[in-house]
Amino acid sequence: MKFKPHSYQAFAIQEVIEKPAIGLFLDMGLGKTVTTLTAVTELLHNHFSVHKVLVIAPKRVAEDTWSRETEKWDHTKYLRVSKVLGSPKERKAALEEKADIYVINRENVDWLVQYYGKNWPFDMVVVDELSSFKSPSSKRFKQLRKVRPFIKRIVGLTGTPAPNSLIDLWPQLYLLDQGERLGKTITSYRDKYFNPGRRDHSRFIVYSWDLKEGAEEEIHGKISDICLSMKAKDYLKLPERVDNIITVKLDEKERSIYRKLERDKLLEFGEQDVVANSAAGLVGKLLQLANGEVYDDEGNTVHIHDRKLEALEDVIEESQGQPILLFYSFKHDRDRIMERFKQAEELGQSDSIKRWNNGEIPLLLAHPASAGHGLNLQDGGHIIVWFGLTWSLELYQQANARLDRQGQKNSVIIHHILVEDSVDEQVLKVLQGKEKGQDALLEAVKARMEEYG
Hints:
Layout: H1 7-18, E1 21-26, H2 32-45, E2 53-57, H3 59-72, E3 81-84, H4 88-96, E4 101-105, H5 109-116, E5 124-128, H6 139-147, E6 153-157, H7 169-177, H8 186-193, E7 194-196, E8 199-200, E9 205-206, E10 209-211, H9 215-223, E11 227-230, H10 232-235, E12 241-248, H11 252-264, E13 266-269, E14 272-275, H12 279-291, E15 293-295, E16 301-303, H13 307-318, E17 324-327, H14 331-340, E18 344-346, H15 352-357, E19 363-366, H16 368-371, E20 383-386, H17 393-400, E21 412-419, H18 423-431, H19 437-451
Parallel strand pairs: 1-6, 1-11, 2-4, 2-5, 3-4, 5-6, 12-21, 17-19, 17-20, 18-19, 20-21
Antiparallel strand pairs: 7-10, 8-9, 13-14, 15-16
């Protein structure tokens, strides 16, 4: 296929070519992969300014997206891609292959840095989903930081650089500029731009950080020369997206069980106990219960109801055979769905993506954490069902963008199956931006707990 870049893609390609370090904060669906591949092609074989390229990506993206995108376009299909995946022996063999691009999953960054040490061979690194390096205490960040001085060119790709707070930005920018713009340490960054927010004074623990007045504008100004941010709504005319809420009601017995757990943080079923030890733990248990089953202290499930399964059955019937992409939260959700709907298949087989895009899978199940980044699924359908919601805005947006993205030809319908008067509704409010973040959800749950005394 011949690649005809949009004007915004041509601009981004030139930026990657001209700047040794750049963050491409391109919204989902704007073609980050082909944009980067085009620039890599130029740098490798026209400018001769790089020789060995490493791509670090989420596992599924590393397995499929980069090689498939490379093969898709006329100007990149000659590139040799080696997937540094699997066992240590398989990874070493992949590194020995002669290739233009080596793709590794982010979980193996630690192994890769230890394997090469000071003999780091990659003069260009592309970090696909830079936001997955947002924790300065993570092993992957610390290890990549060690070899950053050996990297001549680096590109950070993400559509959500700060999904929860600008506090997440420092590690990502450090990998780009080694602390030049936002400081050499996370401590200096926090001290300069943030005030401690919610905290436990007795244990000297800070749970959240609040921006100082004017700090947001100052941060944006500091990074504007090294980061390129683009929103899909400014560049693409996508088909209409329809968000639909399907409300299910619990019967009197089921509602009393929900209220008891919410009030007492404890359920007793014979010899099985379900206990929530904190507000966050309670949210998790209530979300499980709303979906129909809840884990006890031994990790076994306690069945409560099938209301959401019944609602899903209606959605499938109304869809008249059109493929459905369903996101689930817990393993017991997946197991019950697959038991009830024999046509269901979980994303995970090597050819799942190909068969989905060919229209061969009527009901594809995925956890948002495993399908949230980089997978192009828009050719296979236009209907999404959220059986259970995530409270991560980043995962929610990324998951929806598997279908609601460039190349989608139909209106995307996103069904949210919610239990009435439950934590489901509170999570959706957070995701829709009516309230701010995970803290708001926890505070809402705490307020309900206080109502019960």
